[in-house]
Design brief:
Elements (H helix, E strand, L loop, with lengths): L6 E6 L10 H20 L4 E7 L4 H10 L3 H18 L6 E4 L3 H16 L4 E10 L4 E2 L5 E4 L8 E2 L16 E5 L7 E10 L5 H10 L7 H12 L5 E2 L1 E3 L14 E3 L1 H20 L5 H4 L3 E6 L5 H15 L14 E3 L2 E2 L10 H7 L4 H10 L7 E3 L1 H31 L11 H22 L3 H22 L1 H4 L4 H21 L5 H11 L34 H22 L11 H5 L3 E11 L7 E6 L4 E6 L7 H4 L3 E5 L5 E3 L2 E3 L2 E2 L1 E3 L5 E3 L15
Helix pairs in contact: 2-3, 4-7, 5-6, 6-9, 7-9, 11-12, 12-14, 12-16, 13-14, 13-16, 14-16, 16-17
Length: 685
């Protein structure tokens, strides 16, 4: 660990521009990195907080094909949405760039060329999966198949999302092209590889020995597993029509692999920022007095802890990350967040339903952050944290202090008289909190730090509840002046301490108290808190209650998504063999009405029905008893195959067949194309 660095370079994982940002991204990467950057700035540190859109992933090409537009149109659309979401939620990047920018193409090309000229790559002709029908090599995400490690039948060519294993497309069992559905063939192609095996001893010394005690166990454990398992060369180029051209002869039609070019995006974004601000970018990446910290999700651990450091080591002039505090995954209502399945809370939609409640979400996501294990976001928990913690503890304390100050002193902070033992003890405790919260933030324990922030609000509430100034304001006004002065010191401290976590609340609180957030100085005596004679403003609600109806609306939205996914993912049966018109003409279908129904004795699946077919009333035995009660079907109009040969079922002769199908949830429904959940291609039987 670097002690007392001169400057900090903080990077947040580059989001793919194939969709908007959701709460999983915010909880895993962007809120914790923003807390850290804001905290350091409050201490007057030299900070470069860097991010940008990752625009060359194969996910972009897939999205473009699906929507029938160009990759450029995809990235332009989602880059705008993502940027706005970050602005709306107060993510305070010093620079947010794009990997499609000219400065990035130049930086990535120069980085590749230097390693190429140094002989750091291996050039190999290998067999890669090729879709003959589409006439193209298949990048990893254009292939799905069965994972060789956990038998998940829907693994991608680069990763199994079920077991988390990193794969090569050729590892998949029964691979299929996502473009045409065809089984790909193997075809020879030339590529360049980074020989990670050359860096095993360096990685063991740097991480396994050097960071054994200061990196998070989940990060260290994953890295150790990879290194102990033996590293192999990894391709840095691919056959694709979207991305950065490989800048060497003989590489026509090939692009830099996205995992190679994307992390270089941190460097190019820093260059862009430095040029705009009139700074020199190199110290932020090449000075040993710079602390480099990568904030990522666990699916990026291998790339940031093994591959990117190997690239930096090979280049030779860059510093290595001091820490990579990766988070685990956040689930939503018990299910994995998924962009493709629309199982998410999108940030731009959240603000439509909960305007001006950015901090409520920032708070809930930090309090439940997946720092050491996967966690679950539920709307009920979100509501409880807003109402029972933010509103009832933080907001309630501030409201009482401000209302009483305006009521008793017309908003002018009173001068304290003699401090009691309780006053002294409360102020001593208050003065300890900046160092306590700092310690948690410095160790990337943001949940713990947020808990300590709330303890400051609890301290204030307890102080007021115990002292009860409203009961003694008439008989002992001098004592109340001291009490209100102490309470206002706590309120002022909250305005500063909450800024990294709840920036919008901090801003409102500063406006109410008529102060500015100054630096987070561990020597509390140097804090410029409110002084006697200072005029404050009027109270306003910091955290409005969230009602049950608002939460139910979100739950209903998710339920609708679940139903839509079932319909979309419902598999249709293949077409049966061709029949002639003469064959079909033999079928006699009639509309009928069920006039009687009863359960078949000792048979769970069968109903005995009397059906008026218009030509007669006949008995039909139907296997629908697990889906319908006799009472439900009486009076139903149905489609009947009337010229089916009679058949005895449990001693009852059945003279025909009712036509039914299954909806997306597998429930039988009588044939009616307008019935809910009946999809195109549903088989009638």
């Amino acid at each position: 660990m670097l002690e007392n660095p001169k400057r900090y370079t903080i990077t947040a994982a580059l989001p793919y521009t194939n969709g908007p940002i959701h709460i999983g991204h915010l909880a895993g990467v962007y809120v914790p990195s923003d807390i850290y950057a804001r905290y350091l700035r409050l201490q007057g540190k030299d900070v470069a907080f860097i991010c940008g859109s990752d625009e060359h992933g194969v996910a972009i090409s897939m999205k473009a094909k699906k929507e029938g537009i160009t990759p450029q149109q995809v990235i332009d659309k989602y880059d705008g949405i993502i940027r706005q979401s970050f602005l709306d939620f107060g993510i305070s990047f010093d620079n947010y760039s794009r990997t499609s920018a000219e400065i990035h193409h130049k930086t990535a090309s120069e980085f590749f060329k230097k390693l190429y000229d140094n002989g750091d790559f291996i050039e190999e002709t290998t067999e890669q999966l090729y879709d003959a029908k589409a006439d193209q090599f298949l990048a990893d995400r254009f292939v799905t198949g069965t994972c060789p490690k956990c038998d998940n039948p829907e693994a991608y060519g680069d990763q199994c999302e079920k077991c988390g294993s990193t794969l090569n497309a050729t590892d998949l069992i029964n691979p299929k092209s996502t473009i045409t559905g065809e089984t790909p063939i193997l075809k020879s192609t030339k590529h360049w590889f980074l020989p990670l095996n050359r860096y095993e001893s360096f990685l063991k010394e740097w991480i396994l020995e050097g960071h054994k005690n200061d990196w998070k166990p989940n990060v260290y454990g994953q890295v150790k597993s990879w290194v102990d398992g033996g590293l192999e060369p990894r391709a840095v180029t691919r056959d694709l029509d979207w991305g950065i051209d490989v800048p060497v002869e003989g590489a026509e039609g090939k692009k830099l692999y996205v995992w190679f070019d994307a992390p270089i995006g941190y460097i190019s974004s820093t260059k862009e920022w430095a040029a705009r601000e009139g700074k020199d970018w190199e110290p932020y990446w090449k000075d040993a007095d710079t602390k480099l910290v990568h904030f990522i999700g666990k699916d990026n651990i291998v790339f940031h802890c093994i591959i990117f450091p190997a690239m930096l080591k090979a280049e030779g002039s860059y510093i290595l990350p001091d820490n990579i505090p990766a988070n685990e995954f956040l689930n939503l209502e018990g299910n994995k967040l998924s962009t493709s399945k629309n199982w998410a809370v999108w940030l731009h939609e959240y603000l439509q339903d909960f305007p001006e409640k950015q901090d409520s979400l920032r708070y809930a996501l930090t309090a439940n952050a997946p720092e050491t294990k996967d966690n679950d976001f539920t709307w009920k928990d979100f509501q409880a944290r807003n109402n029972n913690e933010l509103a009832a503890i933080f907001g309630n304390f501030i409201n009482r202090v401000v209302v009483l100050t305006n009521k008793y002193y017309n908003g002018i902070i009173p001068a304290p008289y003699e401090f009691s033992e309780v006053d002294e003890q409360t102020l001593v405790e208050l003065k300890a909190y900046p160092a306590v919260i700092s310690s948690s933030i410095e160790r990337y324990r943001f949940r713990e730090a947020l808990g300590e922030l709330m303890n400051v609000a609890r301290l204030g509430n307890k102080y007021l509840a115990d002292e009860e100034p409203w009961k003694m304001v008439k008989e002992n006004p001098a004592r109340v002046q001291t009490q209100m002065y102490v309470a206002l010191q706590i309120a002022s401290a909250l305005a500063i301490l909450s800024e990294p976590f709840l920036p919008f609340t901090s801003s409102k609180l500063c406006k109410i108290l008529n102060i500015k957030v100054n630096n987070w100085n561990l020597a509390f005596e140097n804090w410029n808190l409110t002084k006697a004679g200072h005029q404050i403003g009027q109270a306003e609600i910091l955290f409005a209650q969230i009602e049950d109806a608002e939460i139910q609306k979100q739950l209903d939205k998710l339920e609708a998504t679940k139903t839509a996914n079932k319909v979309e993912n419902a598999k249709t049966e293949p077409q049966k063999e061709i029949i002639t018109f003469e064959d079909f003409a033999k079928v006699d279908l009639r509309i009928g009405t069920i006039i009687e129904a009863e359960k078949m004795p000792k048979a769970n699946k069968l109903l005995i029905l009397k059906v008026d077919t218009g030509i007669d009333v006949r008995t039909i035995v139907s296997g629908i008893a697990e889906h319908f009660t006799p009472e439900e079907v009486i009076g139903k109009r149905v489609t009947v195959l009337v010229n089916l040969a009679p058949r005895a079922l449990r001693g009852v002769e059945s003279e025909g067949m009712l036509l039914l199908t299954n909806n997306a949830e597998g429930k039988l429904v009588f044939v009616n194309p307008d019935a809910e959940g009946v999809i195109n291609g549903a088989m009638i039987s």
